[in-house]
Write a structure and sequence with these properties.
By secondary structure, the chain is mainly α. About 55% of the residues lie in helices and about 10% in strands.
Length: about 140
């Protein structure tokens, strides 16, 4: 298995630098289940940020990319269940992908509710606004 960085994924997806895009295509299309590419959670988060901010991809387009990566048998996505959960929530709008990944990790660890000062994040099941009277002290 080899690890793949954000910039390789972005070049592959947006094809804005022809030489780098060609190299990314050769690398990624040459992967197999036996010689897979590894996408860590941090790369997924950074890739979403770059596609959203720099390339103006819609949430639906980005969620589709994430789901397709997870489904690709020559790509191993770290915490794929977290990425899938966050992608589904991200598609619906509101909260940023990084925050949704944090919530997914908390849920996976059984560490809910996730206490936050982020009002939008606190509006999602599994998260709780710290300054709300219901937040209370940890038990």
């Amino acid at each position: 298995m080899i690890a793949v960085d954000t910039n390789v994924m972005v070049r592959y997806l947006v094809n804005d630098e022809p030489e780098q895009a060609a190299a990314a295509r050769t690398l990624l299309e040459g992967l197999t289940p036996e010689h897979a590419g590894f996408i860590c959670g941090e790369v997924a988060i950074e890739m979403v940020w770059v596609l959203e901010r720099a390339y103006k991809f819609t949430r639906a387009q980005i969620a589709d990319v994430l789901v397709e990566l997870i489904a690709t048998d020559s790509i191993v996505v770290e915490a794929a269940d977290d990425v899938a959960s966050a992608a589904g929530r991200y598609r619906r709008g509101g909260v940023g992908f990084a925050d949704l990944m944090i919530l997914a990790a908390a849920e996976r660890a059984g560490a809910t509710p996730l206490h936050t000062f982020d009002r939008r994040l606190a509006g999602i099941e599994g998260a709780l606004l710290v300054d709300s009277p219901a937040a209370g002290a940890p038990s």
